[in-house]
Every structure is written in structure tokens, then in C-alpha cells.
Amino acid sequence: MTTDQMLKFVTRQQRTPTKRSAGDRRADFEEIYEQYKPAEASAQAGRCSQCGVPFCQIHCPLQNNIPDWLMLTAEGRLEEAYEVSAATNTFPEVCGRICPQDRLCEGNCVIEQSGHGTVTIGSVEKYITDTAWEEGWVKPIRPKRERPESIGIIGAGPGGLAAADKLRRRGYEVHVYDCYDRVGGLMVYGIPNFKLEKEVVQRRADWLADGGIQFHLNCRVGEDITFAELRDKHDAVLIATGVYKARDLAVPGRGLGNVIPAMDYLTASNRVGLGDAVPEFENGSLNAEGKNVVVIGGGDTAMDCVRTAIRQGAKSVKCLYRRDKLNMPGSQREVQNAEEEGVQFVWLTAPEAFVGDSDVTGVRSVQMRLGRPDATGRRSPKPVDGSTEVHDCDLAILALGFDPEDLPGMFGDPDLPVTRWGTVRVDHRTKMTGLDGVFAAGDIVRGASLVVWAIRDGRDAAASIHEFIQARATAGAAAAE
User: Fold this and answer.
1) How many Cβ atoms are within 10 Å of 245's Cβ, its own excluded?
2) Secondary structure of residue 371 in the 3-state scheme
3) For the chain, first and last CA: distance in Å?
4) Domain boundaries defined on the chain
5) Cβ(452)–Cβ(95) under 8 Å?
6) Contact predicate 424/445, CB 8 Å
7) Where is this region: Disordered (predicted)?
8) In this model, does residue 480 exceed pLDDT 80?
């Protein structure tokens, strides 16, 4: 075959994978999109225009070689397509499912801008990698030679695992430490199954372990092992903890019962799906069944919460957001999916107080209007006088974003440098902190962001760690002469 299979966007309409009906998907936590059939994937990949300047690739944090693996898919060369995809991405099957493609690759697709409908990049990426697993093309890491140095990585989320993958390929002994009892971090405990089934993450975790990466779970740095011990034990240490401290809302009634952080709610739901016993879910405090649920926030975490509440059998689900639909930070596709499933969005609305006696019974809100743009370019919301309203609420979920935890305090090392926001301070060229041989990457450096950015940062940090080890070895050899 030749590239004659490409540039079919004029004669071939965009077709996304079949999406299950809203009624069906409200009843379970299974992924909402079906898999492409081979002919469908090939046909949709063939819509790519093979741009001379591929804006899809430019706007991908990983700089994935998207036009190349689309062409290979269109030609039926799927094993080669997987090799190209996996060369730049440790988790292509995850990114194909959860990346906000409408804001990244697909949103910047040239044929989307010309009005023909974007190439379905994420769905093809998912198809390629799922097929690779089914066909046995995904092989464990086997370094060409083993190195004597060891690397300690704190955090088994996407950033830490991406770094572990790259370092292990170079032959390093890699140890990953995580406070949770499973590998995957946010991908396991924060993202619901209807977006990312946990078997997908576990499959990749098993692959990393088969490649020789050693995991130390239920291990809290600062408690079960000290930060100083880690530094003594390993030739370099990477901090990739992510950010999990929930932003709060300082309004009257915040102390009422059943006003909870989003991550507590999502973690409980995911643990139940994994078969764990969760007393807070069983007694109803972290279960939306039969309740009027109000979620406050407009990001992807808020979308995860509202759609989880629908599946748990909530009586009603509202999402309050202080800006309008066009200015919300979450994926527009997620908003559409939530609306289809029965979520009510209350735009330009901000909470003023939680009302109730011991437990919350309502959220008092005020209508907002968008004023002049702020320093970021977004229009600032301003309250409208006399526009108060009370929304019935038995369970209020705060999805307002996340801040870093106090790592110097947790790790017992006040010398670990942090910014005024609490993120770890690094040299952004090398990813190294002010402590020799200690690196940091992902959300703990950049703040709460996307999984794909954590993967990018972890891979970049791995390259810097290798350079650091090499430079130290060269310096040691020169000193010995």
C-alpha cells in the first residue's frame, strides 16, 4: 500500500466509535465507547491530511508522531503503528481514553479547522494499543545491559511510572515507592471506570514489573522510610507525588455533614469498583444513591463526580460553575456526555453558603456575570445583586482543584526547596531541585494538570537523571586518573 490511502477527509465523513446510549451507561461503570472494528479504524485514520506542519503533533505534550501512526493504521500496518506510538508515550492506551483531545491534538487538527471534522486521533490511538496487547506485540522491558546504579522514585502515578519506564530501558535498577496499595495513582483512584477501566492500568503496571521495576506499596516517605534513607540508598531520587490537597471553600456552613472533597468521593467509588470494603460508602456518607447531589466546580474532576453520582443512582445531580460553558476548564466532550446522562449544569452560579442543621440540606448560591478579563485573559465573574437561590442538596462535593501537600514537612527535610505555591522548585532545564541528585516532575512541579503532561515530565526527568549519572561517572573516572 501507499499513501494513496490518505487525504480522504473530503469524501469520507468522520465516524467516532459507537457510543452506548445514555440510558445504558447510566446503569454501570463500563467505558462508554465501543472499540473500532479494523476497517473502521483504517478508514478514519485515512482521513488524515498528512500536513507538512502537523499541528496535532505540535499541540500534543508528548509530541507524538500522530500523522505517522495514522498512515500506518490506514495501511493496515498496526504493529508498526504501535511501535511508533509507544516510542514517545509510555501509556498510549491511557491517553487515547482520557486525554482531552478536543483541547489538544484533535482541537488543532487542520481538517477540523477547515470544517471537515477532526481525525478521531484518540480513538485510533486506543484501537492501536488495545490491538497490540491482544496480539502480544507489547513486550516487557529488556535492557541491553544492566547498570550498577539504582534510582528511587516517589510516586507510582503517570509521571513516576513514565520515568521508571525510561530509566529501566537504560538498565538502571528502579525502585518505585507509593503510599497507596496499588500502582497507578490518580489513574486508579481518581479517574472513574467509565473513562478508564482499571484493568487497563493494571495491565501496564504488570508490564513494568515484568520488566524489572520494583514496587514498594503502602510505603509513606517520612513514615515507613525517611527521605534521607532514600537518598542514601539510591544514586538519584525523583519526586513524582502529584498534588492531592483539596482546595476548600470558606463559606458559612462548610462544617456541615455531607460536604466532602471530590477525591474522597471518587476514591471511595473506585475502591468499591475494585472490590474493596469501604465503610464510608456502605454507611452512605460517600454514596450518592437517592440523594440530591450538588457538585461545585467546572474541571474534569467535577465531570467525574457528576457522572459518578448519576451511576450511583442519585435523585438529582447539579453542577454549579461560576463562569459560563465556554469558559469552563473541563473538556467539552465530558460536559456533553454528562448532559446526555442527566446532569443539570447551572452556569454563572457561585455558592454563598451551605445550609442545614447538622447535615447539609441546601446550597445557597448567587448568580454571576462575566466582567473584564483578568491577568490570565479569562473574564472575571462578578456577583449579581439580589440573585440568591437555594438548591436542594443532601451531598455537596467540592471539586475546586488541588494544591501541593507540605512535602518538606512530610519528608522531614526542610532543605527541600519549594515555591510560594508549595510546588517543588526545580531547574526546569534539568528537573533537579536544589538538593544534589534529587529531581522532581509532574504536578508536584507544575501544579495540578493533565496525565499527559505528567507523562511528558516524567520522561524528561528520566533523561536528565541519566545525564546526571553519566556526568558524575565521568567526573569520578577523571578524578581517579
Assistant:
1) 15
2) strand
3) 58
4) 3-135, 150-243+404-480, 249-401
5) yes
6) yes
7) 1-25
8) no
What is the SS3 assignment for 248?
coil
In which band, very low, low, confident or very high, does the pLDDT at 3 lie, cut at 50, 70 and 90?
A: low
In degrees and rounded to multiples of 5, residue 203 shows phi and psi of -60, -45
Residue 408 CA to residue 39 CA, distance in Å, equals: 54
Q: CB burial class (10 A; 0-12, 13-18, 19+) of residue 429?
A: exposed
Q: Are 204 and 164 in contact (CB under 8 A)?
A: no
**Residue found under cell 487525504:** 7
> What mean pLDDT value characterizes the chain?
96
Alpha-carbon gap, residue 205 to 185, rounded angstroms = 11
Question: CA–CA distance from 245 to each of 42, 139, 159, 181, 283 (Å)?
Answer: 43, 37, 18, 19, 25
Quote the cell numbers at residue 212. 524489572
> pLDDT of 351-405, one tens digit each?
999 999 999 999 999 999 998 887 878 888 999 999 999 999 999 999 999 999 9
Q: How far apart, in whole angstroms, are the C-alpha atoms of residue 335 and residue 304? A: 10
Chain segment 132-158, per-residue pLDDT in tens: 999 999 999 999 999 999 999 999 999
Q: Give me the CATH topology for the region 3-135.
A: Fumarate Reductase Iron-sulfur Protein; Chain B, domain 2 (1.10.1060)
What fold, for 249-401?
A: FAD/NAD(P)-binding domain (3.50.50)
Which of 148, 152, 177 lies closest to 234, judged by CA? 152
Cβ neighbours of residue 464 under 8 Å, at least 6 residues apart?
Answer: 430, 431, 432, 439
CA neighbor of 69 nearest in space, from 53, 55, 52, 88: 88
Cell numbers given for 120? 478521531
Beta bridge partners of 293: 317, 395
Q: 249-401: same fold as 3-135?
A: no
Note the pLDDT of residue 1: 42
Rg (CA), the chain: 23
Model confidence band, residue 13 (pLDDT cutoffs 50, 70, 90): very high
Q: Which three cell numbers stand for residue 415?
A: 532543605
Residues 277, 295: Cα–Cα separation, whole Å:
25
Please give the Cα distance from 321 to 319 (Å, whole number). 6
| CATH C-level class of 150-243+404-480 | alpha beta
353: which strand partners? 364
Q: 353: Cβ–Cβ under 8 A, 6 or more apart, which residues? A: 251, 252, 253, 363, 364
Dihedral sign from CA coordinates of 50, 51, 52, 58: negative
For the chain, what percentages of helix, strand and coil (3-state, to nearest 5) are there?
Answer: 40, 20, 45
For residue 98, give Cα distances in angstroms to 33, 295, 467. 12, 21, 32
Reported as a pLDDT band with limits 50, 70 and 90, residue 477 is: confident
CA distance 305 to 303: 5
* Residues in contact with 330: Cβ distance below 8 Å, sequence separation at least 6, in sequence order: 100, 298, 299, 300, 302, 303
Q: pTM for the complete prediction? A: 0.95
